[in-house]
Amino acid sequence: MNYKLLGRSGLKVSELCLGTMGFGTEGGWGADAATSFAIMDAYANAGGNFLDTANVYKLGTSEKIIGDYISNHDRDYFVLATKYTLKDNVTNPNASGNNRKNMMRSVEESLKRLKTDFIDVLYLHIWDNITPIDEVLRAMDDLIKQGKITYAAISDTPAWVVAKGNTLAELMGWSQFIALQVEYSLLARTAERELIPMAKHFGMTVTPWAPLAGGALTGKYLKGDKGRIKPESNRLNARAEKITKVVMEVAAELGVSESHVALNWTRQQYFSCIPIVGATKVNQLLDNLKTVDVVLNADQMKRLSDASAIELGFPGDFFNEEAVKNNSFGGFYDRVEKR
């Protein structure tokens, strides 16, 4: 794999991120320790160095497995990202949320499970709509100064909150968020309304979770494998079926798997994007790694984008109106689009 810079930083990460939410067998599914080790071996052998986990994944087992693995490998080779926010114990009222107390406690517990002295990237996992964003950024900046984390990032949070946070951080001289993790795929494009334009403005890398929409975009559900997906899921409706059929058509044209098409649609966007690819079997990972050797042409990208297009709403659709583009601002929009 090639390497990309993560946001407005000098941190070099591989062009596919390995998602480890399935490391552990709690809940009756997932990969055991031996299989997880084999997956990380295959990923590292392909040049992958960017691992994504969270304090709550598999009740902490994901972090423990990663900790056991990297303690016997070159720790500095890996860029280790984890998250805090969601409830991970029942000992106190502050065992969840974005507050400073929970952040400090969660980081200490993650460091123990990961068997490391520092976390490369710490994500706020999900916005709690309670904690002031300046409290979050000041606490993360303190952890950076202490050497316990290296970079700050954020996930599943409204665009206005992230924008306010990065603006405050720039004003106060704190470390800014360098990455934004959100759901994004051909079946889930609503992040294009506010979140992705905001991330592009601040130079943040988008790290999409569920870029294959839980496997729906591989076509397996159209072939009869419903797996653990709920029948009412928006990954099984008529719109999803239409989009997935286009993915399958493009895959057939290129002679590649459907996952390669769906992943490359995210990778070839106009903003910095590193999809998170999960795996509970080695063969799943090995297939997804082939994505980096595939390129979609302009026509294929357009067909996929047209099939999955959403209404941006106001003001996004207003900005895209032909009358505005062609008749206002002296052709300003046309000139911007050509730059």
UniProtKB/TrEMBL annotation:
Residues 15-306 form the NADP-dependent oxidoreductase domain. Pfam families: Aldo_ket_red. InterPro entries: AKR_Detox_Biosynth, NAD(P)_OxRdtase_dom_sf, NADP_OxRdtase_dom. Keywords: Oxidoreductase. GO terms for cellular component: cytosol. GO terms for molecular function: oxidoreductase activity. The keyword Ribonucleoprotein does not apply. Coiled coil: none annotated. This is Aldo/keto reductase. It comes from Mucilaginibacter ginsenosidivorax.
